[in-house]
Amino acid sequence: MTEKPTLLILAAGMGSRYGGIKQLDEFGPNGETIIDYSLYDAIKAGFGRIVFIVRKDIKEAARELFEPKLAGRIEVDFALQELDSFVPKELGAVERSKPWGTAHAVLCAKDHIKTPFAVINADDFYGYDAFEKSAHFLSTNPDPNTHAVVGYRLENTLSDFGTVSRGVCEANAQGELVDINERTKVGRENGSIYYQDNEGNKVELAPSTPVSMNFWAFKPTIFDQSLKLFEAYARENMNSPKAEFFIPIVVSHITANGPGKVKVFESDAKWFGVTYQEDKPVVKESLRKLIAEGKYPEKLWA
Fold first, then answer.
1. Number of domains the chain is built from
2. Is residue 147 part of a domain?
3. What positions does the domain Nucleotidyl transferase occupy (predicted)?
4. What is the mean pLDDT of the chain?
5. Residues 264, 266, 267, 271: is their CA dihedral positive or negative?
6. Is 12 among the domain residues?
């Protein structure tokens, strides 16, 4: 029997634009976090284990919040993303306050995960479809160097309260990722969607453009590949306190240089999440609608 995949939840972010610990904020009718809905979908889809990546200062709060709900339902583990994790020792003390980024967060789970696994953000709602497709892929695709990403339609991923960053995906005829580019300051203007390039120019994007919302499906080979790349990245960026080692850096490297390929699974689900405090009422209303439609029970863990 194939071992059930693991779900890795990235919950160590700072939430600077939100103004608080959005990973632990309450959105559901009974105080549920956004993570609760991801956990519910993951268990339903067939994941067998949960690993949270957290900062040291929120580890106990996260443990107290999630362990009682998940007891008897699924195995839970916690890993820490620390500023000096996997930084080559000869580089000395790390002088930065900002975490090293999403690919570094994944790397920090290296000693906690031995199975194929999916990666999600703690503060994004993805919909059941993404968990089902990823669990099926991770349980049935034996190639250790074939990974996957869930691509959402760009128009379904924007905030009404400010611009966002999105990983714009380009796939080939076989449905495999050819390129992924992080586009910043993405937002609507006069009925169209634009991002801002490095020169400050506005570039239009089609509403149907597939974008990554950081829902990835990886085989464990990704850890050693990430480690080599991060050590080189840390050497180059020790004096850049805002530099971040993002997942697309790793993915772009393995798709361009091997070994590895990344399948793109498209989802028509309406993503929602909290980038800004103003997003909170929208998320609450979206969850209320899904509960009214019967997608989720009103009391998630009853």
1. 1
2. no
3. 8-239
4. 91
5. positive
6. yes
